[in-house]
Input
Amino acid sequence: MRLFAAGIAIFCACACAQSNSKPSGHWQGKLQIPEHEMGVVVDLAQNSSGVWIGSISVVNSSSIDVPFDSIAVEGSGVRLKAHLPEVSSFDGVVEGDDFSGTASNAAGQAPFKLARSGEAAVKIPPPSTALSSGFEGSWEGAIGVEGKQLRIGLKLGKGAGTAVGAFVAIDQNNLEIPATTVITTGKDLQVEARAVSGKYHGTLGDDGQIAGEWSQGPTRLPLTLKRVDPR
Output
C-alpha cells in the first residue's frame, strides 16, 4: 500500500469491539505496509440516537481526528470508510479486545491490527453553517512553499441545509480533499480539512476575491482565492 506524504494525506483506519460485540472504545494499533508499520488511533462510539460515530488519527502525520464517512457494524464484523482524501475502506473482525482485518484504497491493500485501550474520545468536528451569499462556486489561488507556487482550489456548495466543500491540490492531479467543516458568517469564511490538518480563514472583499490565510500545522501562509470556472 502506498504511503502518502505527511502534509498531503496519510491513510489508514480500523475499529474493534468489546465482549458485547460493540466496537466502542479507544483503539490503538498498526497498519503494516511494505517495510513499514504505521501507527493508528481510532475512537468509536454511539451517539444518543444510537448512530455510530468515530474518528481516526495517523501517528506522525497530518491526519488528525478525521471523522469516518461511514461505520457499519454487523455481528463481529466492522466496516469503516474514510475520505482521507481518497476513499479508503477498512474491513475486519472483532475478537474480544482485538480487531484485525484489511485496509484498502486505490493504491492497494494492507493488514491492520488494533487493541482497545480505554474509553472512546471521539473528536466531533464543529457543524457547518448555511453558505452565505457570494461564496458558492469554484475558487483558486496559490501559496509559496520552498520557492515554488503550489496551486490550491476550493469548491463550495450547498448541501442538505449546510455548506459543503473540498480543497483541490491542483498540482497533484487535482486531488480533492473534502472539507470537514465549512462556516460562513456574513463575508467571513472558515474551512477545515482534518485529513491534512488544513485550515483556511478568509474574507470576501468588494473585489470578489477571498483574502485570507492557509494554515497547516505550524505553517501559516497568505492565500487569496479568485473565482474560476469549475474543473
Q: What stands out?
A: Confidence is low (pLDDT under 50) at residues 1-20.
